[in-house]
Structures are given as structure tokens and as C-alpha cells.
Amino acid sequence: MLLESHLQDTWVAPTAHDPAAVDVRDAVTGETVCRVSSRGLDLAGAFGHARDVGGPALRALTFHQRADLLEALAGAVRARREELYVLSARAGATLNDARYDVDGGIRVLRDYAARARVELPDAPYLVEGPAERLARGEDFLGVHLVTPSPGLMLQVNAFNFPVWAPLEKLAQAVLAGMPSVVKPATPTAYLTERLVRIITDSGALPPGTLQLVAGSVRPALDLLGEQDVLSFTGSAATAETLRTHSNLVARSVRFNAEADSVNAVVLAPDVPPASPLFEAFVREVVTEMTVKAGQKCTAVRRVLVPQKHERAALDAIASQLAEAPIGNPAAEGVRMGPVVSLAQREDVRRAVRAIAASGRFVHGDPDKVRVVDADPERGAFLDTLLISADPDASAPHEVEPFGPAATVLAYRDTAHATALLARGRGSLAASLVGDDVAWTTSFARDAAPWHGRLHLLDSTNMTQTTGHGSPLPALRHGGPGRAGGGSELAGVRGVVELMQRTGVQASRRMMAAFRDQ
Ligand code: NAP
Question: How far is the CA of 10 from the centre of ligand 1 (A)?
Fold first, then answer.
């Protein structure tokens, strides 16, 4: 079955015979779920439709009316979320994983709707701050006018959040007055397709504001223009290819990249083994390794512990991993499903072997796994893999095993821990676990420039945390360097960043007119 795309407000199939069409398989059983191809699709027509029909419809609305669209969208997805849960199991997701993706996306829509109503005016554009006098007289003032771009957002998404990622980007694009063209990653494109069907069936969005391209969009990169945004999520390697694409460079197409990163958690020297905070640290690591089978861009890959607590940390993490059953996500009691595909499993195996070259597997074997209610070879199953490695080797800081794997690295002293953390060359999130306020805040100041988000866990907030791996609408999602250098979320600031900021110099009466309109 060839997956359809939603272009120009119509569901369309690609050319029937494409020898390059990709078979997408069920992560649990290996059965074919669908075939994906974009051959024969009119992408130029789709982009034109977004710019000519979707954009004007959104730009005619105020921020508050756009917030109403997000609320309607959230209601529509929520009403049919069970369908998405069921389908998510085919990609290897447990019900918990599916909720993370689906309910997480709904929450972002609602959060952005609420923020827009409070923090943005009931107007189609924004006048930033009070006007400033620019000359001696009273009638030459300056402000920044923030207006919607008459372009489109092309979302190129990763496979691991087929629902959350398009919704999270859509929330900001709708508020910014931009239509979206969504290109999901092939291995989970069928989930985003169902999401888009749910949205289009509901009629919650005006025509032209949401289109879907299943399959490659490579030729369409030449169609992007000065007012468009390419919002990319995926590997650092693909980000590099897109960032340097000749059309994007020539036309200064705005490019936001959320790429891979080797995120870390650091256990502070003051946390004794077996203490409640130490147990919270262990839970955090195990959660990061097992939720979505470790296929989260923010997942902890490096676990930095003081040398004196290395043994205790390894034992405690390994013993909790041993209690997490792996198997068919639909089976009772299963805590972790397979990774998304057999190819992804091979990638993870290669990555963990490279890391373990300077150490050993403390828990799990990359080639063997016991599973509940499934065939471990037909499905893309992997054991949870805990590695102990030389902290000064390169691979643990450079290689991202995008699966249920993490590496414990023992640091000698604070300076060593700081230096090791920075060897990830920029990441989305880092957690610091400790109660010593002076140590933690000083460490955090040194670590902050390398991370998009810092999660400081101590005895007072360990029962309230939303967890290391959860991006939140209020805070930046993105990170410097290897993490892509991008920024999403961060409240309404993320919306404003998608719009055009223009410095306006004008008389007092002109300024007043902008505010009154
Ligand atoms: P990927 O291979 O880089 O693919 C990402 C997307 O880019 C897919 O939609 C892919 O389409 C498309 N793509 C690949 N090459 C392209 C090209 N030359 N031109 C246009 N589009 C192209 O990444 P993935 O395997 O899907 O996702 C896993 C990676 O994403 C991990 O490394 C993870 O760390 C990262 N990630 C980062 C974040 C974040 O927020 N920072 C979130 C999730 C995942 P096809 O599938 O059709 O090839």
C-alpha cells in the first residue's frame, strides 16, 4: 500500500510504479506496513498553494484567533488519539511511549494557545516594546514591527516523534501566521499520515495551512525562497547537508536544525550511594535508556559519576535494567519495545561496539536479547546496553547510539567532569544531580554554554521533575554546536523568531496607528 500525501487540500497517491519506493516494516513483526514514495507528486504546486491560500488565511487572523485554531486542533487530535496509540505500537512504542509522543503533542498545542492569549495581542502582528525617540524632536520614533512572513514552513522531521514533532512545530507556525508542509521521516511516516488525516477530517485548520509529503523532498529544497523556513530535526550529518544546500545559502532561507547530541547526566560528588537522591539519579538514567527504547534526541548517553561511586552506580543501574521486560509493546508488563527498524538496530550495534572498544558491557549484549511475545530476529529488538568505558577515550563523547544504550564514565575531579561534559561539543540537555548548592551552581555556569537546557535535580525537586528528557514549551529546545545550533519552543519567543522583525522609524501619529490597527 503506497502511502498518500495531502497536497493542495486533497489526498494524492504517488506514481504507482516507483522502483525506489521504500518498504516500511512493522518494528515488532517485520510485516510490511506501507510503501513510501514521493515520485510524481506536485511539490511546486503544494508550495504555491501554501503561499497563495494557506498563508493569507492565517495572516488575516489575530494571534488570539490563531490560538483558537490550536485549541480546536488539540481537541481534534485528542478525540482520536487511541488510533495513534494503536498505530504507534507498530513502530515499537509501548502505550507509555505513545502517550509521550501523542499526548505530549496535544499538550504543546494547548500550552501555546494559552500563552498566545496572555502574552500576545489580539492583533495579526506585534509592535515590540515602547517607541523610542530617535532624534531631538518628539516626532521621529523607532520600534520593531514583527509581522508574519509570506512564506511557508517546510518541516523535515526525524522518525522518533512522528506526532509530537509536527504538532510542536505546527503550534509555533500557526501562531506565526505561516502555513506548513510536513515531511515525516520514512520509517514512521504512516503515523504522521494518520495524524494529518485526523486533522484534515476535523476541518480545524483553514485550507492550505497544512500539507503532508510522504517520501523524499530533496528536489523541493530548490523551491524554497527568502520568506520560507526549513525546520529540520534529524541527524547531524543530514543537518550539515541541508545547511550547505546551494539554494538555501543563495537565498538566505532560514534554517533551524535540531540535530543529534550526546547528552549527559552528571552525579555530583556529594550524593552518597543508596541515598534517595542517588536512587532518583538511577531512575532517571534507566528511564532515559528505556522510554521509546532510548530513541529520544534528548536521551542520556553519557553518565558521569565520581570515581568513588562508579561501582555503586554501575550496580544500581544494571540491577534496575534487569527488571525492565523487553518485548511486544502490546504484551502485558512489557516496559520497552523494539527500536524502529532492523537498520536502526544495526546502527545502534555499530555505535555501542565503537564505544565499548575502550571498556566493556556491564549489562546487556548487543547481539542477544530475551523478549516477551515476539520473535527477536524478525522484530528490531535490542537489549538495554550499559557500558563502562574509559572517560578519556573519544567514542563515548562522539558516537550517539540512538537506542537503549548509555555509558558510565568515571571522573577524577570537578575539572575533569567539566572537561568531559564539554567533549560532547554541544548538546540538547544535561542533568546535574546534587544537593551541594555551591558546587552545582558553579558547575552549571561552566556547563551552560554547551547545552540548550540544564536540568538540576536535588532532594527538594526530585519528586516533582518532569524528567531529563522532556522538552517543555516554556524552555528552549535546541542546543549549540553538535546539537544543531537551533532553537524551538521557548514560549512565545519561539513564535516571534519565526516572524520578520523590521525596525520602523516614523512619526508619533504613524506609530499610534500601528498600535491601533
Ligand atoms: P535523518 O536520517 O537525519 O533523517 C531526518 C529527516 O531528514 C528525515 O525526514 C529524512 O527523510 C530527511 N532527509 C535525510 N536526508 C535528506 C536530504 N538530503 N534532503 C532532505 N531531507 C533529508 O534522522 P533520523 O534517522 O530520522 O532521526 C534520528 C536522528 O535524529 C538521531 O540522530 C537523533 O538524535 C536526531 N533527533 C534530533 C532531535 C532534536 O530535537 N534535536 C529530535 C529527534 C531526533 P527520509 O526518512 O525520507 O530519508
Answer: 26
Query: What is the extent of the structural domain holding 422?
Result: 263-472
Catalytic residues: 258, 297
Domain co-membership, 436 together with 312? yes
**Rounded distance between C-alpha atoms, residue 296 and residue 49, angstroms:** 33
Atom of ligand 1 nearest to the CA of 484: 41
Best residue among 297, 427, 451, 487 to mutate for probing ligand 1, ranked by most atoms within 8 Å of CB: 297
Please give the backbone phi and psi of residue 153, each rounded to the nearest 5 degrees, phi first: -100, 120
Number of domains the chain is built from: 2
CB 387 within 8 A of CB 362: yes
Q: How many Cβ atoms are within 10 Å of 103's Cβ, its own excluded?
A: 17
CA distance 176 to 477: 18
Secondary structure class of 302 (helix, strand, coil): strand
190-219 tens-digit pLDDT:
999 999 999 999 999 999 999 999 999 998
In a domain, 188, yes or no: yes
Is 465 a pocket residue for ligand 1 (Cβ < 6 Å)?
no
- Measured CA to CA, the distance from residue 383 to residue 335 in angstroms comes to 12
Q: Is the CB of 155 under 6 A from ligand 1?
A: no
Closest CA to 208 of 48, 406, 364: 48
Model confidence pLDDT, tens digit, residues 103-162:
999 999 999 999 999 999 999 999 998 999 999 999 999 999 999 999 999 999 999 999
Give the C-alpha separation, 447 to 241, whole Å. 28
CB 479 within 8 A of CB 452: yes
Q: What is the pTM of this model?
A: 0.95
Query: Which three cell numbers mark 80?
Result: 482520536
Q: What is the DSSP letter of 148?
A: -
Alpha carbons 23 and 31: distance in angstroms, whole number: 10
Neighbours of 284 (CB within 10 A): 23
Residue 211 lies in a domain: yes
Specify which residues 482 forms β-bridges with.
none
Buried b / exposed e over 149-165, threshold 16 CB at 10 Å, is bbbbbbbbbbbbbbbbb
User: What CATH number does the domain containing 448 carry?
Assistant: 3.40.309.10
